[in-house]
Amino acid sequence: MTLPRLHLFELEDQAWLPGIVRDLATDYLCFIQATFRLHRPIVPLLAEALRVTNQRQMVDLCSGGGGPVLEIQEALSAAGLSISVTLTDRFPHSRLSHFLAHSVI
Q: 2 lies in a domain?
């Protein structure tokens, strides 16, 4: 069974959405990620990719509220990989905007 492609959009990516609503939405996503530790399966794969490519920098596109970036960075550090992370977003979360390297459109 093939499902048709649906062309949807994220409300948080709309310029007309008030910043407070956007921040609440990304806060909720961060809470769910942290509660269920959804980043854990990717850490070994990311660590291996960083080792194989000898990279020590990661760019997180569409960072929103930052999500699991800090947890991933800590887990990689515990695995012996010290990396720098660049966060990017079209509408950075207000509490993270001073940490974001870029606000992209």
A: no
